[in-house]
């Protein structure tokens, strides 16, 4: 790739096939930059100007820099994103032996575009909970990396009307093919144990007790287009924002109190112990600022930038946008507005973000959904309503959102990172 920012994002996406891997990738970058890991089960002894991060469920992460003396009292600059993406998750007892082939039953996670999952080179990754020979329970991450599965399409000769519309049945149409079932007793747990022992021999023999596994596309991210204008990749929603928030935090000047929160389960409503509708962020803020009144004062002086991809105006489907609100790729981040509170943007927070874009010399756009269409949502309204923090919903414009492979503008990756860095360094919130 010709662009270092796009290459860094591509490397991050490649290393992050699941929310567990994304959180680990973020943690590794933070650790390398001098951030100290905190354990929620321990007492915290925070030092002035310290930089820390904490994981919950191995799939959500909060990182924060305390800034210079008095920075917390002036308010926190928060960036929020999410680590999960729509995909196919493996069922608890998934083994299927049909027509001489071994398949795994899957459940659709989130609002996935299903048609693009057919005829792709798929691999498998996630978290496995196993027991070692000493009886200890271990949470281990697994990633087969190589293509081990595929969901073949039915030939057009056997479904002549397929191009007139094909309703995918998730139960019957989506189980991937992994192998011939000639070998008796093929078992996913045994396969996982073998894979883990090959990569982690230090743990000795393992018995797999349970897992959270996702299929993913093995095709690497790529800069595409005649002039290299676009980045095509899996999970741009919302690893693009996680990466931009991380890069902004690492590039910030350390003067202000800054916090990056990347939570799991946004694609299914955020209601979990580690989701935006759970207590993770509030628990961390209580430990940062134990005094209730001081914490409220700080939150009221703070601003959250909720970063989640926006819908770029598709040239083949321009009528799906409001005529005055069609964001273009490579034309800057998008302020997302919805008067029914599907986005948390207000005139005050939109103006602040526009001001930051002007200062950073970054173009900015606006998205409002068509009045006759429903509107998606983000962690913005959830976090804003739980904390009472002023919030602006923004994101890089993309095509094919929730597909197995999405498309963004190369320039927008840089624009978003640049304005988020300006936000973290700003004295005006």
From TrEMBL:
Keywords: Aminopeptidase, Hydrolase, Metal-binding, Metalloprotease, Protease, Zinc. SUPFAM superfamilies: Aminopeptidase/glucanase lid domain, Zn-dependent exopeptidases. InterPro entries: M18_aminopeptidase_2, Peptidase_M18, Peptidase_M18_dom2. The keyword Metal-binding applies. Its EC number is 3.4.11.-. Zn(2+) binds at residues 82, 157, 402. Its cofactor is Zn(2+). Gene3D superfamilies: Aminopeptidase i, Domain 2 (2.30.250.10), Zn peptidases (3.40.630.10). Coiled coil: none annotated. One of its GO terms (molecular function) is aminopeptidase activity. Belongs to the peptidase M18 family. PANTHER family: ASPARTYL AMINOPEPTIDASE. This is Probable M18 family aminopeptidase 2.
